[in-house]
Amino acid sequence: MTALHAATTGGAAAATATTAAEPAAGLVQSIDWLAIAPVVVPAAVALAVLVADLFATERTKRLLGWLSIAGLAAATALLLPLRAGDRSTFCLTGDPGACSYTADHFTLVIQFLVLAGALVTALLSVTAVREARMPDGEYWFLLLSSAAGAALLPASRDLATLIVALEVASLPAFALVGMRRGDRLSSEAALKFFLSSVTATAVSLFGISLVYAATGSLHLEQVADRLDHVPGQLDTLAMAGVALTLVGFAFKTAAVPFHFWVPDTYVGAPLPIAGYLSVIGKAVGFTGLILVTVIAFPAYSDIWGPALAVLAALTMTFGNAAAVRQDPARPHSAVRLLAWSSVGQAGYLLVPIAAAAYSGRDEIGATVAYALMYAAANLGAFAVAALVARTKPLHRIADYRGLYAERPAAALALAFFLLCLAGLPPGIIGLFAKVAVFGSAVDAGLGWLAVVMAANVVIALYYYLRWTALLFRAPEGAAEGAAGAAGARVRAPWPVTAAIAVTAAVSVLLSGAPQAVLRFASGTLFPH
Predict the structure, then answer these.
(1) Are 117 and 375 in contact (CB under 8 A)?
(2) Res 484: pLDDT
(3) Most exposed: 67, 188, 302, 389, by fewest CB within 10 Å?
(4) Ranges for the NADH:quinone oxidoreductase/Mrp antiporter transmembrane domain (predicted)?
C-alpha cells in the first residue's frame, strides 16, 4: 500500500509539473490542411458515400464504389505535394515541438502503402460487392473509414491519437469481415476478430494510462524524455505500462501468441477484405509498434528489444510450420495458406524493430522496405485468388492446378508474387528485402535470430514452390480439363484484372530497382 501510494503521489506530481510547464496545453496552433489532407479526403468521401446511399437507387448505387475509388486515388495523389516532409500540426502552444500530427518521410511512405493498398482493395471490391449482394453504402463507408484511420496512425505523435487511429482503422474492419449476411463463417470470423481485438486494445489502454501516470504526458517525444528520468518509485509502473502498451499493436501484427484470430478471420471475410487485413492491418500494427518503441520508449529498449526478438522468432516459426501443414485438397486451403504465410511474414517484419533496440533507429528502414514488397506481392496474390474463386469458389490450393493452361497471365502473375514472397529470383525485391532484414539482425548482434530466420526462409520455400509448381502442371483427367476450359471462357471483370496488373507492375518495378527501394526506405526516418 505504501508503494502504491508513493507511485500515485509521484504520478500526480509529474502531472502537476507538466501542467505548470504547459499552461496553454489545451490550445493548438492553426491547422495545416495540406498535411492532413491524405486523412481528411477519405474520411470526407466516406461521409459523402453514406449520405448519397440514402438517396441512390439500386442502379446508381454502383457509382458509390467508383466514387470511393476516386477518393482514395485523390488522397494518394495528395501525398505528392508533401514529399519534402517535415510538416507538423496540432502542436501545443506551450511547446511547439510537441505535435500530435507529423507528416515526415516515414509518415508519407506508410500513408502511400496504406492508401495504395486500400485503392487495390477497392478495385477488387467493385465486383465482389455486387455479386455477393453486400450493402453498397455501408461497405464503402466502412472501407474508407478504416483507410482514413490507417492513414492517420503513422502521422500520430501522441499516445491518445495513436489509439484513436488504431480503433478507427479496426472498428470498421470488424463489420467488413462480417459483411456477408447469413454466412456462418463470416459471422464467426467477425465475432472472433472483434472479441480478441477489443481485449488487446483494453490491455493497451491500461498500459498507456500507466505510462501517463509515470510521465504526465502523452506526446511521444515528451514521454521519451521523461522516461529517461523517471523517479525510482515509478520505474516498475513505467515498465508495466511499456509492456502492456505493446500488446494491442502486437495483436494487429498477428504476432504469436496474438495470432489466433488470423486463419478463421481470413476464411470468413470477403476475399478483398482478407487481402486488406493482411496488408493494411499489418501496416497499422507495425507502424504503431515502431512509433511507441523507437520514439516513445527507447529508455526501455532493454525490455521491448528482447521481447520483440523472441516474438519474431516464435511468429515466423509458428506461421511457416502451420503453412507447410495445409492440405491442398481441403476447402479454403489457399486462403488459409496465405493467412499462415502472413503470420510467418510478420515474424520477418518484427526483426528490424527488435534490432533497433540494439543498433539504433536506422534499422527501421529494413522493415519499411520489406513492408513495401510484401504489400505489393500479397495483395497481388489475393487479387489472383479473387479471380480464380469466380469459377472455383472452394478456395482450394488444388484448384490452381493447370491455371497456366486456363489463364496464362494470371498464373504467371501469381507465380511471380509467390516467388517474391519466397525471396527467389526473378522476385528480386523479395530477396533483397530478406537480405536487408537478415543484415539488421546480424548488425544488432542477434545472431541467433538470424539463424532462426534463415531456417524459416528455407521452410517457406517448400510451400511457396509447391504452389508455384502446381500452376504449371496439367489438370488431372478429362473432367478437370473440361472444367478448366469452362473457367477459361469466363471473362474476368476488368477491375480485378486491373488490380492484378497494378500489383504485378509494382512488383516488377520494385524487383527492377531493389537498391533504390532499399535506399529510399532505409533513409533517416526519424531524427536522432
Answers:
(1) yes
(2) 47
(3) 302
(4) 156-458
Centroid of chain to Cα 488: 33
Question: Model pTM?
Answer: 0.89
Taking the C-alpha atoms of 74, 76, 78 and 84 in order, what is their torsion angle to the nearest 10 degrees? -170
Q: Exposed (0-12), middle (13-18) or buried (19+): which is 450, by Cβ within 10 Å?
A: buried
Give the model confidence (pLDDT) of 184-235 as tens digits: 888 888 888 898 888 888 999 999 999 999 998 899 989 999 998 888 888 8
The per-residue pLDDT for range 494-524, each reduced to its tens digit, is 999 999 999 999 999 988 888 777 777 765 4
Enumerate the domain spans of the chain: 27-203+256-296, 299-528
Task: Record the cell numbers describing residue 301, joined without a space.
Answer: 529498449
* Coil/strand/helix, residue 88: strand
Strands of 87-228 (E only): list them.
87-91, 99-103
**Contact between residue 137 and residue 80 where contact means Cβ atoms under 8 Å apart:** no
By the 8 A CB rule, do 497 and 504 touch? no
- Of the candidates 160, 178, 405, the one whose C-alpha atom is nearest the C-alpha of residue 273 is 178
Cβ within 8 Å of residue 182, ≥6 positions away: none
> Rounded CA gap, 434 and 422, in Å?
9
Q: Give the residue from 99, 165, 106 showing the smallest Cα distance to 294.
A: 106
Answer yes or no: are the C-beta atoms of 369 and 522 closer than 8 Å: yes
Q: At 520, which helix (H) or strand (E)?
A: helix 514-521
